[in-house]
Sequence to fold (443 residues):
Amino acid sequence: MTAEPLTATDTSISAKLYERAQRSLPGGVSRNTVLRSPHPLYVDHASGCRVTDVEGVEHIDFANNMASLIHGHALPAIVEVVGEQLVRGSAFTLATEIEIAYAEHLVARSPNFDQIRFVNSGTEAVMGAVKAARAFTGRPKIAKVEGAYHGLYDFAEVSQTSNPTNWGDSGRPQSVPVAYGTPPAVLEQVVVIPFNDPDTAVEILDEHRGEIACILIDPMPHRVGLVPADPEYIERLHTWATTDGALFVLDEVITFRTEYGGLQARYDVPTDLSALGKIIGGGFPVGAIAGRREVMEVMNPLADTVRFPHSGTFSANPITMTAGLTAMKLYDRASVERLNALTIRLVEGIRGVIAETGATACVSGTGSMFRVHMKASPPRNHRDALQTPAEAAALRVVLDHLFDEGFMMINTCSGTLSTPMTDTEIDALVTAMRTALVRAQDV
Ligand SMILES: Cc1ncc(COP(=O)(O)O)c(C=O)c1O
Fold:
């Protein structure tokens, strides 16, 4: 996204802050996701599912800091325990009991988790899982889905932004770098497979037998269209991995919110490792690598051979652990079910207004996540997800209208729900979506 130059007429506080920010931050931001035209909005405070910007305007928050807040903002129970921990200290070169309690809680949420290691971001969790898989198998390569976002690790980001000029044949997608200067060796070690096409994926994987450390899969990749992986796809990839001696690694950094034990609970296959992040931090930076004891053992510093030495200055800091444990205890089975049911109400509502307005649009997603596409049906893979200029223009109109009506969305027109939401916010979004879709038809 590009920011337009500020106009002299924009005298808002946010505009002034952005002008100042551009002097010391590249592009005026610390993360590209907050950029919007003509300038980012700056927050004053937030509570529950409502965010108030520095102009005093209130927004209903369906972005939830990029899907990372499950209870919205400033949940009193989290504020209280974090406040108590803050006065006792925020980081020590010593272990804390709270990290054990939180490890026990998360491990109990999935039969696929025997042990867990905390880190500080989803990027680090994915990187740690990949390195653990390499250490366990002694193999260098990884396989990943074309278009899937897994954070910033060189290997995991390959082909995330590939496009028609460089993605090659659909039967053999090219390994395409994201960042300039990515070493060619990185590209050689990443096998790119198409989403939800088990035959082609297995054909490609067969060409790398005995070389792949892990298949890394996000079971509902947001950038690829926020469509859940077909059970057959997951099963075929898992079978291939186990037969070949590779590990099956799920990136559940976003999707863990879907079920009490993550989206993997809906599939009939065990996983070797999972990367977690976002909601498990209770509003603070976090990541985690969870998985089978035998695999997690590569990080055991007491082993005769430590195959993957693993550390992190702020890993398992007591602030994140306290907030995370409180948040996840409150996100119990009943809470997951309630939020998923609320999301069904929203998705059905949006489908209703799509039908009513005759707009060319559709909704994908599952659990407490949804994405609106200006396409007749949800994309099947990364190539299908590419927007035409007309689709992109229509989506811009929808997003701008929703924003003007007071709704914060992720800029792909995706959203996530938070537990403070009720029918009121859901029905309000459906109403705003109706006008947005009508407007988009005039583009
Ligand atoms: C599926 C997935 N994996 C990994 C990441 C990286 O997480 P983080 O931004 O915490 O590094 C993200 C972030 O959006 C993600 O969506």
Q: What stands out?
A: The chain has 14 helices and 14 strands. The chain has a mean pLDDT of 96. Residues 333-357 form the longest helix (25 residues). The two ends are 19 Å apart (CA to CA).
